[in-house]
Amino acid sequence: MINRRRIRSLSFWLVFAAAFLFLLQWAAFSSAQEVLKKGINDIQKVESAVLGTGEKVPIMIRPKLAYDASDLKDPFDDFLPKAKVKSSAKIAGIGAEQVAPLPSFAVQGLIWGGSLPQAVIDDQVVKVGDVIQDAEIVEISKEGIKVLYNKKIHKLAPPSSSITDANTSKPN
Question: Does residue 29 sit within a domain?
Fold first, then answer.
């Protein structure tokens, strides 16, 4: 059983500690206010001395400045001008290179939602990185297939693009 005297002693010290903390907080707050008032008065005295008048000058609050670099150059742009490279065939006067057109592909299906996207092109199942008719498959998505052919990227439409276009047109 706890002694009543001990309970009274503990409650006294608890009240004493709470009162002490309150006084410390009040003293810190009041001293901070005094320091702030003294600082403002000192600033007003200096400003009035500089202006040559004996009256108090109101303190002006400066506006906050924001950094806006919208009219500056992009630091990641190239500073060197891009050189135009002429092919040796054009310099020699042989003529322009013949660009082979993209072979016709029949896109029959797409599987793009999983971790390994695949497509069915000309009855062949292909994935990203495969080569079909000298064209490398670069990307397979729901928007279509991107292939790299003769150092150019071409986009092949998905097989459902003609069906969805017909279904989405609204009647008048």
Answer: yes
